[in-house]
Specification:
The chain is mainly α. 42% of the residues are buried.
C-alpha cells in the first residue's frame, strides 16, 4: 500500500492525508503500481464524464476531460513532450540535446508539440463512440503509465542526475512483469481482444522510442519517459479508433 501511495503522489497532484515515508529506491519499486494509478486517473475521468455528460455538449465535456487530465497530472508528462521536441529541433550533439531538454523554457517547437498533442488527444477522444467511451477513459491513462515502466526498466541513464536516473536505479524485472500482467488483464477486461491488440502496438511504439533514445542519447531521462507516456496516450486513442474503422470493433467484456 505504501508503494502505491508513493506512485500516486508522484504521478498526480491529488493531495493525500498524512505523509508517506519514501526512500530513494522506493521510487523505482513503486513503478509496479504505475498502471494501477493510471486506472485511478481513468476512473476520475470516467466519473467526471458521468457528471458532465447530462450538462454539457460532448465537445465541451471532452475538452474539459483533456484539461482535467493535464491538471491532475500537474502537466508533468506534457513538459517531457515539449522538452524532447525542443531537443529534436536543436539538431546538435548529444550534449546539446540534453542541455536543451534541461532548459526550463519552452521553445517554439515544444509549444507546437503541446498544441498538436492536446489537439489530437481531444479530437480522438471526441471520435470514440459513446457506448465505449467510459472503457476507453479507463484504459488510455493506464497503458500510458505502463509505458513509463517499460521505458525505465533495463534502461541506461542518459545523465546521472534527474528523476529518470532515480527510477532507473530502483526499477527492475519484478516491477516490469507485475505491471505488465496488470496492464494486459485490464486491457482484456475493458476492451477485449482489441485491448490486447492496442497494448501490443503501444509496446512496439514504446520499444522504438526506447531504442532511439539509447542510440541518440545513450540512455533515457525523465523527459523521455514523460514524452513516451504522452505519445502512448495519443496513439492509444488513435489505434483504438483505427481498429474500429477497420471493422475490428470493440469486443469489450463490459457491454
Amino acid at each position: 500500500m505504501r508503494l502505491f501511495l508513493i506512485a500516486f503522489q508522484f504521478l498526480t497532484i491529488v493531495p493525500l492525508p498524512g505523509t508517506v515515508r519514501c526512500e530513494e529506491e522506493d521510487l523505482g519499486r513503486s513503478m509496479t503500481f504505475f498502471p494501477l494509478v493510471g486506472l485511478a486517473i481513468g476512473a476520475l475521468l470516467a466519473g467526471a464524464d458521468f457528471l458532465l455528460a447530462p450538462l454539457l455538449p460532448r465537445g465541451v465535456a471532452d475538452l474539459v476531460l483533456v484539461a482535467l487530465l493535464s491538471v491532475v497530472t500537474g502537466g508533468l508528462h506534457l513538459d517531457g513532450l515539449s522538452d524532447v521536441c525542443d531537443g529534436l529541433a536543436a539538431r546538435g550533439s548529444r550534449e546539446r540535446f540534453l542541455d536543451v531538454m534541461k532548459d526550463p523554457r519552452v521553445g517554439a517547437v515544444g509549444a507546437v508539440a503541446l498544441v498538436l498533442g492536446l489537439g489530437l488527444k481531444y479530437q480522438a477522444l471526441l471520435a470514440v463512440p459513446l457506448q465505449y467511451k467510459r472503457e476507453v477513459l479507463l484504459f488510455f491513462p493506464l497503458v500510458a503509465r505502463f509505458a513509463q515502466v517499460q521505458m525505465t526498466v533495463g534502461a541506461k541513464r542518459a545523465r546521472s542526475d534527474g528523476l529518470g536516473s532515480v527510477f532507473v536505479g530502483g526499477a527492475g524485472l519484478t516491477q516490469f512483469v507485475l505491471s505488465c500482467i496488470f496492464t494486459l488483464a485490464a486491457a482484456y477486461g475493458l476492451l477485449g481482444v482489441n485491448g490486447l491488440y492496442c497494448s501490443v502496438l503501444l509496446y512496439l511504439l514504446t520499444w522504438g522510442i526506447k531504442l532511439w533514445s539509447h542510440r541518440r542519447l545513450g540512455g533515457i531521462t525523465g523527459d523521455l519517459i514523460g514524452c513516451a507516456s504522452e505519445l502512448n496516450e495519443i496513439f492509444c486513442l488513435l489505434f483504438l479508433l483505427a481498429l474500429l474503422r477497420q471493422g475490428a470493433g470493440f469486443t469489450g467484456a463490459i457491454p
